[in-house]
DNA sequence: TCGAACCCTCACATTGATGTGAGGGTCAAG
DNA sequence: CTTGACCCTCACATCAATGTGAGGGTTCGA
């Protein structure tokens, strides 16, 4: 598929798909006329990227993380330098922190909403 | 305490504490000379703010969420407009999405690191 | 052959969270 | 009184993610 279709399928502006490529997050083949071509796997990858960006990770870190996500046998670690492993460990821990923070706050918001809804339910039938 | 101490206790530059105030995330009393004064509760609140910012939430949303976090009896909902409740529900769901995304990716990174560490452990004693 | 709908590469603008520093008060200790 | 360590308010700078559009090719069907 070309960039327009990938854009539609992922809900991501073309501009950003080119930006992600520039940042080394995705790769695209080129047609003889210069058009980018993508295969289906890029759809999931772009979704991953968007999710991680939305969760506060910068592209620089996402770039490190993405190679870990190739489920079908990970053959991608012989090139892992010790400093890169340290980065990954740090990021793993930071992600855990984020999860904790988000969970705590999400639960608080949810509880708040539950209480409010109770109040409203108790008030309206009166 | 004054801004310097709050800055130290939270590891947050003074500049940002003023910024958070400007965005309506925290409030500060003032001494007669204009200095900001904070009480201990602000330490936790600033930590919350930093955590949420780091998790990708904009100050505008954090501002909506913070009132939900006052555990000691929430007396703060009579002013809840329906549109604000909708915002909160949306945010709650987005936070859930973020948590899912982060968890999935964190687990993948963790698994990757485990595998790499196994490989290294198997290689070094040889 | 013409127009619509694609695609390309710049390149400048914006927004939100920050950094940095100038210019200037306050206040306690020497 | 002066110095150092605080504090204040601007205001401009930066960085990453994103918006916008100019200027220009390609392709395909009417």
TrEMBL record, chains A, B:
Annotated ranges, domain HTH merR-type: 1-68
Recorded superkingdom: Bacteria
Record-linked PROSITE patterns: HTH_MERR_2
Pfam families per record: MerR_1
Keywords assigned by UniProt, alphabetized: DNA-binding
Protein name (Swiss-Prot/TrEMBL): MerR family transcriptional regulator
């Amino acid at each position: 598929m070309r960039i327009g279709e990938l854009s539609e399928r992922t809900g991501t502006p073309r501009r950003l798909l080119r930006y992600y490529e520039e940042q080394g997050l995705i790769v695209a083949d080129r047609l003889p006329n210069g058009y980018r071509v993508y295969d289906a796997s890029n759809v999931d990858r772009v979704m991953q990227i968007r999710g991680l960006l939305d969760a506060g990770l910068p592209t620089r870190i996402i770039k490190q993380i993405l190679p870990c996500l190739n489920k079908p046998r990970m053959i991608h670690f012989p090139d892992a330098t010790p400093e890169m492993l340290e980065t990954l460990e740090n990021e793993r821990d930071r992600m855990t922190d984020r999860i904790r923070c988000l969970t705590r706050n999400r639960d608080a918001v949810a509880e708040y909403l539950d209480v409010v809804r109770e109040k409203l339910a108790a008030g309206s039938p009166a």
